[in-house]
Design goal:
Shape: elongated
Radius of gyration: 16 Å
Structural class: mainly alpha
Number of helices: 6
Helix content: over 70%
Strand order of the largest sheet: 1-2
Strand content: under 5%
InterPro entries: CHP02444
Protein name: TIGR02444 family protein
Order of helices and strands: HHHEHHEH
Largest sheet: 2 strands, antiparallel
Distance between the termini: 28 Å
């Protein structure tokens, strides 16, 4: 298997995320099931490449980003959400929000690179119609 490229994955993820209904679907996985959006996007990417992950590989992908998610992304999201609730009390809120969103996107891209680096160590299974997201949505974290 040819190694995956982080930048190509980022472009795929941005395009997929912007499709009608996809943002709501992915945020639903995150908010209702506690799933990681970047991992969901990677699984859709692998589907598009006709590659399937095994349950143990999926578990390894979850583990490799857990600390980054908990220590970097989730606190930033929580800060952004909190500031939104008190935005009228914050001078220059629009600028602060924009800068936080920019930082969050940079961290999202970094998390995607972590996933790609890990998946490049796997021997993935060629599959005509993989459904990696179904495997993930059924998995318990």
């Amino acid at each position: 298997m040819k190694p995956l490229n982080s930048e190509q994955f980022w472009q795929f993820a941005c395009k997929l995320y912007s499709k009608d209904g996809m943002q709501a679907k992915l945020l639903g996985y995150q908010d209702q099931q506690g799933k990681n959006v970047n991992l969901c996007l990677l699984l859709y990417y692998l589907d598009s490449l006709e590659l399937a992950v095994t349950p143990s590989q999926l578990s390894e992908l979850e583990s490799c980003i857990a600390a980054f998610d908990q220590q970097a992304l989730q606190p930033l999201r929580a800060t952004r959400a909190y500031l939104k609730t008190i935005q009228t009390e914050i001078s220059d809120y629009p600028t602060i929000r924009k800068e936080l969103l920019s930082a969050e996107l940079k961290l999202e891209k970094q998390q995607q690179a972590i996933l790609v680096n890990r998946v490049n160590n796997f021997e993935l299974i060629p599959c005509v119609k993989p459904n990696n997201i179904a495997l993930y949505s059924k998995a318990n974290i």
